[in-house]
């Protein structure tokens, strides 16, 4: 099962300088995470049934190559770390240009929120297992 999603950038993703705006990188990374969770059987409906939701504590983007309007990009996600019980995690999203060059990385640190208690919680065992089976991020050699 792949965890990469391909997109085509739109006018709404651009800034006045003619390249992809900073927040669009975060939007594409978030969409890839949601798509991956849905592949695992945790779509918006399932999270609502469980009264559970993912939350972020930190998000950091490193910009490496310019992305322009109409460009095809590919976004994947790799697990950087996770607590043994799956309660907290970190994912590195890599955004690739069509030619395979890395345009940016988006690193997020998150956890799971019990939507009724409004407190951090441990996810269901099968969701924690899916996270632990996610491909592991390996930093590129310098």
Automatic annotation (TrEMBL):
Pfam families: 4HBT_2. Coiled coil: none annotated. CDD domains: 4HBT. InterPro entries: 4-hydroxybenzoyl-CoA_TE, HotDog_dom_sf. PANTHER family: 4-HYDROXYBENZOYL-COA THIOESTERASE FAMILY MEMBER (PTHR31793), LONG-CHAIN ACYL-COA THIOESTERASE FADM (PTHR31793:SF24). This is Thioesterase family protein. It comes from Hymenobacter armeniacus.
């Amino acid at each position: 099962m792949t965890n990469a999603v391909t997109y085509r950038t739109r006018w709404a993703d651009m800034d006045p300088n003619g390249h992809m705006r900073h927040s669009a990188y975060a939007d594409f990374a978030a969409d890839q995470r949601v798509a991956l969770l849905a592949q695992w059987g945790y779509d918006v409906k399932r999270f609502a049934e469980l009264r559970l939701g993912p939350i972020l504590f930190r998000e950091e983007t490193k910009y490496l190559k310019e992305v322009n309007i109409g460009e095809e990009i590919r976004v994947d996600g790799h697990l950087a770390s996770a607590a043994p019980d799956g309660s907290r995690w970190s994912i590195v999203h890599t955004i690739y240009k069509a030619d395979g060059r890395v345009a940016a990385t988006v690193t997020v640190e998150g956890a799971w929120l019990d939507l009724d208690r409004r407190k951090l919680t441990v996810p269901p065992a099968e969701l924690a297992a899916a996270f632990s089976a996610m491909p592991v991020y390996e930093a590129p050699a310098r």
